[in-house]
Amino acid sequence: MKEKGSVALYAIAAPVGVLLGLAVFTFGYARGHSYLTDDPEACVNCHVMRGQYEGWLRSSHRSAAVCNDCHTPPGFVPKYFTKALNGFHHSLAFTLGNFPDEIRITGRNARVTDEACLKCHEEITSAMRMARHGRQDITCVTCHRNAGHAH
Predict the structure, then answer these.
(1) What does the pLDDT look like over 63-119, one tens digit per residue?
(2) How far apart are the C-alpha atoms of 95 and 66, rounded to whole Å?
(3) Residues ≥6 apart with Cβ < 8 Å to 90
């Protein structure tokens, strides 16, 4: 009886070990640890982000905000959930080779970014927020396209 249990354990442990080893290797190779920081340099680990990074360097926000301030929601869990979700989608797209040369923001990430704008600029946006109530087609970047990334 013991032998059958050992075989079943190895049948599970071997694939799990291989997957875990592959995950650790990939995390190290892709400099995954850098994504756990707030350093904007981490965003340019990926060549398609070079334009956004250079635009941020030329923008008015360079001295006031880093990428995570605008592109992740506040709070530890929401921030790292968003980073993990985006990281998964980015690595999947690069692995499968189905990413656009010019990166585009998703609807979810656009909402996160718009909320960040409204939070940081709450004093001057309160009247605008009341006026746009229910108008999801009007976002901060509708008028302020160059605020975070000078184009």
Answers:
(1) 999 999 999 999 999 999 999 898 888 878 878 888 777 778 889 999 999 999 988
(2) 27
(3) 46, 99
Which bin fits 149, alpha (ψ -120 to 50), beta or left (φ > 0)?
A: beta
Task: For 18-37, give the secondary structure using H, E and C.
Answer: HHHHHHHHHHHHCCHHHHHC
* Cα 128 versus chain centre, distance: 27
Query: CA 43, CA 69: separation in Å to the nearest integer?
Result: 13
> Are the C-beta atoms of 65 and 147 separated by less than 8 Å?
no
The number of domains in the chain is 2
Instruction: Find the domain containing 89 and state its range.
Output: 43-143
Clarify whether residues 65 and 138 are in a common domain.
yes
What span, in angstroms and rounded, lies between the C-alpha atoms of 149 and 141? 10
Comparing C-alpha atoms, which of 42, 29, 48, 40 is closest to residue 148?
40
